[in-house]
Amino acid sequence: MAGDERWSLRVTRRSASGGIRRLTKARVAKLIRDGGSGRYNDGDGLSLRIDGGSATWRLSFRFNGERREMSLGSARSVDLDGARQAADDAHRLIRSDKRDPP
Fold first, then answer.
1. 60: exposed, middle or buried (Cβ count in 10 Å: 0-12, 13-18, 19+)
2. What CATH number is associated with residue 65?
3. Average pLDDT per block of 10 residues along the chain, 102 residues long
4. Which residue in 11, 20, 28, 77 has the fewest CB atoms around it within 10 Å?
């Protein structure tokens, strides 16, 4: 059909600091269910690490010029929204308060 244009709407999920979010709740559930191994980045240093039967949220960041990484909990007990909130809280401590998150 002439003149038939197809448009798609791409919804961009952004973090509090403006970074793009890559994971969805459905994808996280599938990754955990399927098992395997890998690191899946969500953006702004937040990632989901799956190693066999364990799935953990990790946050990578720099503090005083040194690269650091911290655990935000098990993906079985902390959902994607909770991990994002914990990562945003940690970033706030680093940027605003100039403190190393616990």
1. middle
2. 3.30.160.390
3. 43 49 90 90 93 92 87 95 94 77 66
4. 11
